[in-house]
């Protein structure tokens, strides 16, 4: 009888631990799902921003086909200022960090989920690597061009006072200034195209697939 009582107690305790772990797994899944929804909102925002950026860079590149002496200064510097801006993806990492650093992955006896999370993390790193290249083109190549090829007093007025120059004609400090700027803007166009048509949709498919699995397997029944 004593053995039976101990054995039943063991089963009850084991069942209780299993129930607690299952409940904890559902709670973590719900938290992860919430983080992924935030990631999706960010990706949708990035996609919309890059659609606008495509129109901007295409328009700027078309303007640069004109002779510098005939370019509208206000339009030129308006395009240049907007092209110098950036927007990057910031992952909601709260739950994933808990899963990795606090050992909460043990609550999931689900190899597919663990593999999908690892796959998602891999593609985020790939995504951010391409974003870093795009950002480097803006901050270094375009930034250096503006600093060494254009009138810095105009740039200062735009940045500090939000005053754009009026009139016609752009003066470059170097003979190949226009050619170099066209090359930089074309690089930005190509980089934006890759992010818009490949990287953003691919990462969105990854996050949507992970969200669907979490909802189907760990959502309310």
Provide structural commentary.
This protein has helices at 2-63, 73-83, 94-101, 111-149, 152-161, 177-218. It has 221 residues and is mostly helical. It has one domain (12-218). Helix 1 packs antiparallel against helix 6 (177-218). The longest helix has 62 residues, at 2-63.
Low-confidence blocks of residues:
2-20
Morphology: elongated
Q: How much strand?
A: under 5%
How many β-strand stretches? 0
Structural class: mainly alpha
Would you list the SSEs in sequence order as H and E? HHHHHH
Helix content: over 70%
| Count of helix runs | 6
- CA radius of gyration is 27 Å
Distance between the termini: 40 Å
Brief write-up:
With 221 residues, the chain is mostly helical. It has helices spanning 2-63, 73-83, 94-101, 111-149, 152-161, 177-218.
Write the layout of secondary structure elements.
Elements lengths: L1 H62 L9 H11 L10 H8 L9 H39 L2 H10 L15 H42 L3
Keywords for this entry:
elongated; mainly alpha; disordered N terminus; 221 residues
